[in-house]
Amino acid sequence: MHKGPSTMVRVPKLTRAAAAQAVRNPLAFIAERWTPENRTVRIAALTSLVMSCVIVVTGGAVRLTGSGLGCPTWPKCTADSLTTTAEMGFHGYIEFGNRLLTYVLCAAVGWAIIAARSQKPARRSLTRLGWAQFWIVMGNAVLGGIVVLVGLNPYTVAAHFLLSTALITVATLMWVRTADGEGDATPRPLVGKAVRQLVWSLIVASGLLVAIGTVVTGSGPHAGDSSDVPRMDIGAVGLDWEGVSKLHAVLAWVVVTLTFALWFVLKAVDAPPGPLARTRALFLILLAQGAIGYVQYFTELPEVLVGAHMLGSCLVWIAVVRVLLALHERPRTEPGIPSQADPELSTV
User: Fold this and answer.
1) What's the whole-model pTM score?
2) Are strands 233-234 and 188-189 parallel, antiparallel or unpaired?
3) For 141-167, how does the pLDDT look when each residue is reduced to its tens digit (9 = 90+)?
4) Burial of residue 335, with CB atoms counted within 10 A of its CB: 0-12 exposed, 13-18 middle, 19 or more buried
């Protein structure tokens, strides 16, 4: 019987010099032996972004189930145990499970860094964005420990969420920058100055919306623990939760109005399809988020809807960042790739 040619690939032997290099600089060692396709890098960046949102939602689950002090200390779960124990029950499992997801997030960010570092030609901007995510994760892990050690102080909890939003921002930026055709050249505007100013107004309003949302949570009924956790106050006066919630709703309508105005202006100036599509997506996400917000308000904040609203907050912010990034193009430096930008737009 005739045997066909062998399809087995011989694995090169790991020499002593190569092993030493792997120890000294593992990223360079991997990059010399692996060249991922751009699709792989994009998937890695998307995985990091998804996990950045998952960790926010699971953190919300910790809060909404009253498990914020399920592990009463940090970095251990108890004074004598690194992990949760059976005696700690449901809340211990929820809190410790959220802590374990931090390692999954680190793995996702690590994959994004390795994939970006190994891509050829090298794009240092992507690697830097990956490392920025890593350091934000490390900082937020420490801040999360502080949150536990200070007994879920609402201001530290708000800072914990805002730092997670910063992580989502960087992860979104990296994901968008991995798109096909996206390079590292100097960004060129696709719309005029007036439109860009309108978008920056949208960014500021959306940032305020997210920040005030943390105040709504910090002064509301979901304290994150079954015991009495202090709520946000000004001096000795507690914040009016109803008033803060109404301010949050007003800001939401401001963001919706700015988004609709942006969509109208983009249609009027015959903008490229990219900014239009992302603005339309943002508008639809805002409508869904607003519906959830009003339903949860009038149904006395059921936990499931509050969790959905936290996920919606992540999606709204991602959509806002993507609108901002759609206003410019960064073409690759290789010749032959046409630009969508119109030089006259910079003066419109």
Assistant:
1) 0.86
2) unpaired
3) 999 999 999 988 889 999 999 999 999
4) exposed
